[in-house]
Amino acid sequence: MEYFSLILPSLLRGTVISIELFVATLIFALPLGLPIALGENSKVAPVRWFCKGFVYVFRGTPLMLQLFFFYFFFPIYLNIRWNAFPVAVLTFVLNYSAYFAEIYRGGIKSIGAGQYEAAHSLGLSKWQTFKDVVLPQMTRIVIPPVSNEVITLVKDTALASCIALADLMRVAQSTVNRDGTLTAYIIAAGIYLIFTAIATVVLGKMEDRYSKYEEVA
Amino acid sequence: MALLEMKHIVKEYPNCKALNDVSLSVEPGETVAIIGPSGSGKSTLLRCVNCLVRITSGEIELDGKIFASSNPESMVGDRKGAQIADKSGNTEAQYLPEKQLKEAVCETGMVFQHFNLFPHMTCLENITYAPIKVKGIDRAKAVSRGEELLALVGLSAKRDEYPGRLSGGQKQRIAIARALAMDPDVMLFDEPTSALDPEITGEVLSVMRQLSDANTTMIVVTHEMGFAKEVADRVIFMNEGRIVEEGTPKEIFEAPKSVRLKEFLGAMLKA
């Protein structure tokens, strides 16, 4: 018990960093996925290629490789020193926006031609059609797959420990190395579980809110 | 003067001719029923009226304004009629620029086979969205007009329900109200009862009959021969992208001239 209270404060400091990374990633990646998804469907070929290429690269390579790449890219090629945290945020945002873009693209695709025809017949502009017809329906459709990614992100934040970010994983690992007992891992696991439980509840609430208009079977 | 004048409409797809020289003129207040086997081009013709389908050649005039023409002697806005080829080799008639075309589209109201209501909006929101956002009508006015229309289609009680909670017939009546809310000059019905259970087509048809009696200009693509017979002022029979025969319901149903129409009516009666 004494040991527990001894290591808990440092684990909690690591947790705060993990949460910061988690929140920052979502704040930027959730909206950034949308223009990428639209770009993938763009009529302008270079835009389409760029967005498809972006998604291909960031979904097709390991997140850990991307972390290392950006961690060393700035000091080696641009001669700029970046701390681990901004590098982690940048990498996670790019990586996750690629995943979100694919989810959004699927959501947009699943909206039937009839909705566009109705919007056309009522004289809606392209922007009105997107904002008031497509986007709200897409949002409902993508909540379950986005939730899935969000839960994965909770755990993926641990990867940032590989570039020496002092997140929960890193703190737990060094504590275990130092003290030779697994207690820190167990506490960290508990914290991750609390974290995912909260995320699950919040996302479930959002799903309920957006499904109020669903067909009743 | 005719409200809608379609002249020599041709619609070509890469491997078929959906419409082959179709001319149709509709007077104000008239109810025109278009019948014919599937694939005969009836829906395509209807969709040309609100530009969901863009014509290859021909001319469409709505309310005295030509919005599409391939005839160089006609003026489409301030441009001459023409046939224009795009990069992928498809040709289409000269159309009005986007903004003016939108105005023409807003003079038509379309009712679809599968309703196409906006599922995330309540019934009232479905009806008032376009008047408010497209026509810029004051919200309070649009809402009171929306309530009138809900009463007209007999669904005042569903004002704040989402379409997902309605039956097919109710959805279609809301869709009719939504189209009417834009005060269109002509109402277009694309097989409005084909997706409904037979026992509830009546509630939709009775709303349509009401509109027809109130001298709404209507073009109805339908498989409901009873409706065409009783409500339409004129019936048009299409086959293979052409108008084969047209006339009063009496002429079409009681004294069909062409073999194809006789066959079609025979098959419809058996069904």
Describe this structure in words.
The complex is a heterodimer of chains A (217) and B (271). In chain A, 30% of the residues are buried. In chain A, helix 2 (45-60) crosses helix 4, helix 3 crosses helix 4 (84-109) and helix 7 (168-179) packs antiparallel against helix 8. Chain A starts with a helix and ends in a 7-residue tail after the last helix. Chain A has a single domain (2-216), classed as Orthogonal Bundle (MetI-like fold). Chain A has helices spanning 2-40, 45-60, 63-77, 84-109, 113-121, 126-156, 168-179, 183-210. Chain A is mainly alpha-helical. Chain A has eight helices and no strands. By secondary structure, chain B is an alpha/beta fold. Chain B has helices at residues 42-49, 98-106, 123-133, 139-152, 168-180, 201-213, 225-231, 249-254, 259-270, and strands at residues 4-13, 16-26, 31-35, 57-62, 65-69, 75-76, 79-80, 83-85, 91-95, 108-111, 186-190, 218-221, 234-239, 242-247. A six-stranded antiparallel β-sheet of chain B has the order 2-1-4-5-9-8. In chain B, a hairpin with a 2-residue loop joins strand 6 (75-76) and strand 7 (79-80). In chain B, helix 3 packs parallel to helix 5 (168-180) and helix 5 packs parallel to helix 6 (201-213). The model of chain B has no long low-confidence stretch (mean pLDDT 93).
Brief summary:
The complex is a heterodimer of chains A (217) and B (271). Chain A is an all-alpha fold and 217 residues long. Chain A contains 8 helices and no strands.
